[in-house]
Amino acid sequence: MVKVAVTGGIGCGKSYVCKLLGERDIRVYDCDRAAKRIMASSLKIQDELRKLVGDSVYSDGVLNKAVLAAFLLKSEDNTTAVNKIVHPAVADDFVKSGDKWMECAILFSSGFDKLVDKVICVTAPLEVRVERIIQRDGITREKALEWIDKQQPQEQMVSLSDYEIINDGEADLEEQIDSVLTSLGLTDVLK
Predict the structure, then answer these.
(1) Which of 135, 157, 171, 189 could form a disulfide with 166 if both were Cys (CB 3.0 to 4.6 A apart)?
(2) b/e string for 26-50 if b means 16 or more Cβ within 10 A?
(3) Sign of the CA dihedral with 52 first, then 58, 61, and 63 last
(4) Strands, DSSP E only, in the chain?
(5) CA separation for the pair 123, 157 (Å, rounded)
(6) DSSP secondary structure string, 9-61?
(7) Residue 178 burial (CB count, 10 A)
(8) Distance between CA atoms of 20 and 3, rounded to whole angstroms?
(9) Mean pLDDT of 92-121
């Protein structure tokens, strides 16, 4: 069976599209959730992160997100070093899971696109994304734009993907999902 990734920038609604896929009995592996679980449960990962970031990155075995975030924001090299620890563990976990679908915001920069056969990019206009982020996270417009700017440009993600699902609040998501599933030969899960 074909392996498929769902990607897209922050605020595009890729998690919502994955929820709709779940309603069709398509189980989607969530890379972000897996990374958090692995950082919380793997003693090997915890040890490597302590050596890299410092002992304060964990307190009584619990990840100190503020310490990790501060370390990541200091430099691109820090982000690369953390990714070299976490990404291989998540990739291995995905392969072992047996899942055929994954949700991954950083699909191309992580190299996870090499784990799948097809890529769906969920997109939305900038203003829609900004509003979603502000409502979801209770942050300022400036901060939302800063987060968007830190990610791979949406146009570039689309150009590297096999399919685009437009999640602008107006386009019919179910119809677009059906079209992609039909193209993938997965007509048994159509709505």
Answers:
(1) 171
(2) bebbbbeebbeebbeebeebbebbe
(3) negative
(4) 4-7, 28-30, 58-59, 62-63, 101-103, 118-123, 163-166
(5) 9
(6) -TTS-HHHHHHHHHTTT--EEEHHHHHHHHHHH-HHHHHHHHHHH-GGGEETT
(7) 17
(8) 17
(9) 96
